[in-house]
Specification:
Elements (H helix, E strand, L loop, with lengths): L1 E4 L10 E4 L2 H17 L3 H14 L2 H17 L4
Antiparallel strand pairs: 1-2
């Protein structure tokens, strides 16, 4: 089991996600982002806007994803 925060994943808070795989943690982060979008949290909306800009470039988005996955993989298991 490994842990990453919303902030470490490009978000806007210190909510902790725990999972065995990066794909699981990415799913949790996406669900959290959906919740924050629904309540119109301004800090998360700003982070989402920045992510949308990144997504305009498939190369930049792939690089971002690979760096986040590598960061997850380098974390010690708990």
């Amino acid at each position: 089991m490994k842990s990453m925060t919303c902030n470490q994943l490009g978000g806007a808070c210190d909510k902790v996600f725990q999972a065995e795989t990066f794909e699981e943690i990415a799913k949790m982060s996406k669900e959290h982002g959906t919740e924050m979008f629904k309540i119109k949290d301004p800090d998360h909306l700003k982070a989402m806007s920045e992510m949308r800009e990144l997504m305009k470039s498939p190369e930049l988005m792939q690089d971002w994803f690979m760096k986040k996955k590598a960061a997850f993989e380098s974390l010690p298991s708990q």
